[in-house]
Amino acid sequence: MPRLRTAIEIDPNNDEAHYFSGLAHRTLKQFDLARQEFEAALRTNPDHARARGNLGLLFAEQGNLIAAAEQFRLALQLNPQDEIARDMLARIRKAQAPK
Predict the structure, then answer these.
(1) Domains observed in the chain
(2) Model-level pTM?
(3) Mean pLDDT of the region 2-11
């Protein structure tokens, strides 16, 4: 991750560096740092569909299904072919449906 950190230091608006840093932190289960990096990518580029989808996955992993569903919905607006976002949103809706 040192190269990602360097890329972000050189260009704090590098949405891809923030995105990949978020993935690395998520893999290391550093969820707060992952969220910060995905959100930084989205501040720079609100249309970053992969950052939206991964932020949704992060929220889902932490049990925040309302926030996860919102991120998946936004990811699908940006990329209607995102099968993971579509599947996760369907799962959340099914889990929240009255029984």
Answers:
(1) 2-96 (1.25.40.10)
(2) 0.91
(3) 91
